[in-house]
Amino acid sequence: MKKSIILGFLLVIFIASLAFAEDKIVAKVNGKAIYESEVNTIITELLLNNGIAPSSVDFNNPQLVEIKKKILEQLIDREVLAQHSETFTYKGIENDVNKKLDELKSGFKTDKEYKDALQKNNLTEEGLKEKIKKNILVKKHIDSFKDKISINDLEKKNYYDKNKEKFVIKDSVHVKHIVILTGDKRSDDEAKKLIENIYSELQKGANFEDLAKEYSEDGSAKMGGDLGYIAKGKVVPEFEKVAFETEVGKISKPFKSRFGYHILKVLDKKKGKQLSFDEVKEQITKVLFDQKLETIIKTNIDNWKKQDKIERFL
After folding, report:
1. What mean pLDDT value characterizes the chain?
2. Which one of 26, 82, 263, 291 has the largest count of C-beta atoms within 10 Å of its C-beta?
3. 275, 169 in Cβ contact below 8 A?
4. For residue 133, which of 92, 185, 161, 174 has the smallest C-alpha distance?
5. Are 57 and 67 in contact, with CB atoms under 8 Å apart?
6. All structural domains of the chain
7. Angle value at C-alpha 189, between 183 and 191, nearest 5 degrees
8. Using CB atoms within 10 A of its CB, is residue 304 exposed (0-12), middle (13-18) or buried (19+)?
9. Distance CA 264, CA 199 (A)
10. Chain mean position to CA 60
11. What is d(CA 100, CA 107) in angstroms, rounded to the nearest whole number?
12. What is the pLDDT of residues 71-123, one digit of tens each?
């Protein structure tokens, strides 16, 4: 199960929220500014995580502007939570701050590198310690909500009964493959001829793993073409069809997918099954716990926002 997006976002360390004087202010929370650079940094990370070069994107595109507004709202929520966590003090906070600061410092080879990083990010060490303290207090505040959460067996069972499809292990097959790519690399005819020559070598008794290491053109080549277990629905249809129809211990005839030409070697097959409630009980507990924690956090933030002064300029 995926961890709560909101919860994960709120726990992001505040050191990442750096801004410079020339930045455009896009919101204020009780007078505390949120800068456009903070929004754009998050968008840049999202684009990179999805394989998109930020330089190829128009940040003023209407669709992206809407995304920016949603991200800004999350930043506002985070700032509201942070401000309402400032009074959440506890014995040992200074010790925790200094410990975290030492951890961050240890990531630099020299003291000069550390000081250069502070200067680059327009920070003093005291400013950095304040950001660390802010982040720790938010986490401690969230931890205090956790004590209020309880989950009984009936809730877990109801969740299981309503979401059984989430707890299914699909049929899977353990395969190795040799792939010869088409497209810019070579013509279809060239790839087909090469895969047929490789298949001929296999028919003569050549070792599949050795040929995979020599000829296959993806990351699995160095492992003798081993792709591990593949579940149904996880690969392109033409690959899946051959993988599940080929007998264990057998090698398939060459076939084509949109990536190129393949030969498969099937090592094992596993029959899928519906996982029982007892098998996923602990997993469900965590899911329900995270859901309840997120609801508590969101409810508190929404209530705080009603009394806070929120200004938006985006």
Report:
1. 89
2. 263
3. yes
4. 92
5. no
6. 5-152+282-312 (1.10.4030), 171-271 (3.10.50.40)
7. 60
8. middle
9. 10
10. 26
11. 11
12. 999 999 999 999 999 888 788 899 999 999 999 999 999 999 999 988 887 78
Lowest mean pLDDT among 8-12, 196-200, 253-257, 276-280: 8-12
- Alpha-carbon span 56 to 54, nearest angstrom: 5
The residue with tokens 């456009």 is 36
- Encoded tokens for 303: 């209530």
Sequential DSSP letters for the chain: -PPPHHHHHHTS-GGG----TTSPEEEEETTEEEEHHHHHHHHHHHHHHTT--GGGS-TT-HHHHHHHHHHHHHHHHHHHHHHTTTT---TTHHHHHHHHHHHHHTTSSSHHHHHHHHHHTT--HHHHHHHHHHHHHHHHHHHHHHTT----HHHHHHHHHH-GGGGEEPPEEEEEEEEEE-SSSS-HHHHHHHHHHHHHHHHTT--HHHHHHHH--SGGGGGTTEEEEEETTSS-HHHHHHHHHSPTT-BPPPEE-SSEEEEEEEEEEE--EEPPHHHHHHHHHHHHHHHHHHHHHHHHHHHHHHHS-EEE--
Sorted by sequence, the CB contacts under 8 Å of residue 201 that are 6+ apart come out as 211
